[in-house]
């Protein structure tokens, strides 16, 4: 039990360290992006107003293009996920249909068995004497009905 807890603790520690490393790299990337934007901002302040407007428009176009690409990538992932979920749904629908068919078959067998029982009960109410004629293939059913 102690080994299991120790293994779980090591797994959690490893996951935590990986998460910390990921977050550190994200922070570094954000710092670099912020420094780049500050440099660009300082450069634009030194430009004439017309050039500042043009530069601002170029920056906005670049930002929107990147955002558009990210959205396209997200859309592709969602479409793949949708296809996967549709396939799973078809599989589960098939399983449900198979289950319902098997349940219907079981119900049919039960009804047939109940009808056989009712027939047997009806025959028991009559008073028979003598020999009984039957087909050879009906012998197991006849024996079963006699026993029940």
UniProtKB/TrEMBL annotation:
The keyword Coiled coil applies. The keyword Coiled coil applies. Keywords: Coiled coil. Residues 2-125 form a coiled coil. It comes from the Eukaryota. This is MYO5B protein. The gene is Myo5b_1.
């Amino acid at each position: 039990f102690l080994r299991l807890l120790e293994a779980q603790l090591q797994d959690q520690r490893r996951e935590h360290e990986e998460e910390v490393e990921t977050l550190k790299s994200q922070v570094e990337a954000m710092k670099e992006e912020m420094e780049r934007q500050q440099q660009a901002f300082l450069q634009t302040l030194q430009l004439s107003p017309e050039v500042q407007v043009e530069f601002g428009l170029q920056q906005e176009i670049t930002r929107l293009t990147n955002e558009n690409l990210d959205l396209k990538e997200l859309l592709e992932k969602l479409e793949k996920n949708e296809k996967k979920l549709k396939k799973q749904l078809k599989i589960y629908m098939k399983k449900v249909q198979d289950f319902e068919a098997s349940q219907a078959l079981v119900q049919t067998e039960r009804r047939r068995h109940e009808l056989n029982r009712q027939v047997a009960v009806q025959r028991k109410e009559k008073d028979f004497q003598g020999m009984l004629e039957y087909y050879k293939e009906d012998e197991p059913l006849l024996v079963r009905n006699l026993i029940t």
